[in-house]
Amino acid sequence: MHAVGIVAAAGSGSRLGAELPKALVPLAGRPLVGWAVEALQAGGVDEVVVVVPPAERAAFAEALPPAVVLVDGGPSRTASVRAGLAAAGSAAGVVLVHDAARPLTPPAVVERVLTALADGAAAVVPVLPVVDTTVVVDGDGVVTGTLPRATLRRVQTPQGFDRATLVAAYARLADDADLTDDAAVVRAAGVSVATVEGDDRSAKVTVRHDLDLAELQVRR
Ligand code: CTP
Ligand code: MG
Questions:
Q1: Assigned CATH class of 3-219
Q2: Residue nearest to ligand 1 atom 10, measured at CA
């Protein structure tokens, strides 16, 4: 089972508000994207494609090992993953799509995703339980309902797919579609998505506080 990792790293990181594109922001002196690539490799991925902001290609090439394939991203995460998938080549039996913004994903999470694919899942996502009471509000912010927490999950990356299944699902999707993850792309094509256990250490760096937490994590 030849596994290719696609790392979505073409975002700007507007909510983080750094000078650099978020994937190049250092964590313990190394860019987030370097951590994310290493996590995939440590978990058993054979090749890695990194999708980068076109204007920053040289900086990414300098930050990453030479074996990593760089591809220009698009205006949305969906467009960027679509570009990465086109570069992933038909030698790949399975693909794992990962966020550069998740630098500290333990290799065990990657292994769980690969195992589920080897066991026959066409699509699999790592998930965590929702620990807070979760409510629905109206336009004025007034609570109109409480969601049944026991059936809710928070979805992380890397998300794993049979390559042909993901390619077919992207081919069905409108050119300007903008979905927040890839499981939504295959679900729109009617594909069942399995789950494996995620990990709190695989949290996404979105705002400054997340980066501060990641720094504490690597210092432990
Ligand atoms: N991403 C991408 N191409 C885009 C937008 C996002 O490859 N056009 C990637 C980001 O680089 C990131 C992942 O998708 O690794 C998750 O997106 P998010 O956390 O939203 O990152 P940004 O879009 O960069 O951040 P923000 O939304 O705060 O601008
Ligand atoms: Mg974004």
A1: alpha beta
A2: 11
